[in-house]
Amino acid sequence: MTGAPVHKAKPWIEPLARMGYAARALVYLIIGVFAFLSAIGGVEKKGSRDALRTLFEQPFGEIIVWLMVAGLAGYVAWRAVQALLDTDGHGIGPKGLAIRAGLLVSAFTYATIAIYALSLLGVFAGGSGGGGSGSTVADFVDGAIGQRNVSLGLAIVVFGVACAHFWKAFKRKYADRFDAGPQAMAIIDPISIVGLTARGFVFAVISFLFLLRFVNAEDSGEHPGLEEALSYVQSLPGGAWLLAATGAGLVAFAAYSAIEARWRRIRINSAV
Prior knowledge:
Layout: E1 6-8, H1 13-40, H2 48-56, H3 61-85, H4 94-120, H5 132-145, H6 151-170, H7 182-215, H8 226-235, H9 239-263, E2 267-269
Antiparallel strand pairs: 1-2
Helix pairs in contact: 1-2, 1-3, 1-9, 2-3, 2-4, 3-4, 4-5, 6-7, 7-8, 7-9, 8-9
């Protein structure tokens, strides 16, 4: 089998990518744990920003959030490199371009989370605790995304992301990205399948909420996200059980992200 030459990633890329996967793991661990605890009673669900605030409020929280900023910056850089330089060989066909566009969207999304984390740290004018221009930038992005006239397009895009997660889980498309032996893969496989399926399910719910916004002609300064999706799941018949299962699945996705931090093959083509 022939193709574009692929080499080991340049030294500066690999640590950024691995820090990024580790940061994503920590964010989803908090979201998943709180979703599960909310299902069994009395604990508030959290989105990605709430997860960062939870970290900030812990002992040594400022140091932890600074480390998260570094990790998120690494993740953003790696996603951009993946998209622009086609590190995984998706190509320039319709499917490949869609995947690469999704990687750019991921980079943008985590960039806004990193900006919010910096606002917690008081980097921007206006102080810490979520104020300042960093929070304003993130709120502006939320407001733009929350407009009805973009809701249908976002519903379609997010549904595509959900389907990609399901496909990746059930076809084991993740497996060829790992440098792990058979014994490790025996553990990685069930974690990956459960984690990717759970995250795909959450994306499917977010897509449905965007579609509802479009159908109902809603125009809001906020857009559906993880927390709203989890609240909707909880409101369904048998919602407590569904939320508990989703929370456990998101914890599995956090484990999957940690596995990527350890075993994911970080390679890019010779253009770098």
